[in-house]
Amino acid sequence: MVTRTRRMTAVSGAILGALLLAGCGLVPQPVVTRLPPPASAASGDATAPSAAPSVVVSPSPTAPTVSVAPTTAPTIAPSDGSVVDCGTGGTGTVSGAERSVRISGTCSQLTVSGTALTVDAGAATIDTLTMSGDRIRVSAAAVDSAIIQGNDTALTVGGALGRLDLSGDRAAVTAGGAIGSLVIRGQDSTVKAGGGIGESTVEGRGNTIG
């Protein structure tokens, strides 16, 4: 009887111990969360991405615009010793210094101005000739009207000279034909005409008319 009682007591203790252990296993355990270390701390070789270089393209400079102004050729721009053709009824201008020019054709008007100019118009016919300057020499086949202003000038006409208006000193005018009318203002000039001189007006001293 005593032995049975001891066995029952031992079984009861075993069951009680098992229950206590089971009760302890049912108690909830705390949850610990572990995060991985930062990337910078985990690896020392990591580098921040570099920004891509930007390329700025400047516009190419605009080519400059070149404007070419049209040039107008002078009526007569001869070089020394050149030949200029007035054509039929053309006009011309010869200017400069110490030049020699040859004129041909029929000139309605020829203007010669400058210093020490020599104009050979022996093959030309000139309606109106204007000479302005010093030491100008002009020879022509025929001149209808001549206006001379300057000193030490000379005009030689192969044929007749319709009208001569001379202002200046020491001029020499010679016409193979007649001179229709003459006006002289100046000194020491000489005018000769193979066909005679018509109406004349002379102002100044030492002039020779014949």
Give the SSE map.
Blueprint: H1 2-26, H2 39-42, E1 82-134, E2 137-149, E3 154-157, E4 161-167, E5 172-175, E6 179-185, E7 190-193, E8 197-203, E9 208-209
Parallel strand pairs: 1-2, 2-3, 2-4, 3-5, 4-6, 5-7, 6-8, 7-9
In short:
The chain has 210 residues and is mainly beta. It has 2 helices and 9 strands.
Q: Could you explain how this protein is built, in words?
A:
With 210 residues, this protein is mainly beta. It is built from two helices and nine strands, in the order ααβββββββββ. The protein has helices at residues 2-26, 39-42, and strands spanning 82-134, 137-149, 154-157, 161-167, 172-175, 179-185, 190-193, 197-203, 208-209. Strands 1, 2, 3, 4, 5, 6, 7, 8 and 9 form a nine-stranded parallel β-sheet that branches. The longest helix has 25 residues, at 2-26. The radius of gyration is 62 Å and the shape is globular. The protein starts with a helix and ends with a strand. Residues 16-27 and 40-79 have low confidence and may be disordered.
Regarding quaternary structure, what we see is single chain
Helix content: 10-25%
Low-confidence segments, ≥5 residues, pLDDT <50? 16-27, 40-79
Order of helices and strands: HHEEEEEEEEE
- How far is it from the N-terminal to the C-terminal residue, by CA? 201 Å
Strand content: over 45%
The helix/strand class is: mainly beta
Backbone shape? globular
What is the average of the pLDDT values?
A: 75
Q: Which radius of gyration do the C-alpha atoms yield?
A: 62 Å
Strand count, sense and barrel status of the largest sheet are: 9 strands, parallel
Compute the number of strand runs.
9
Helical run tally? 2
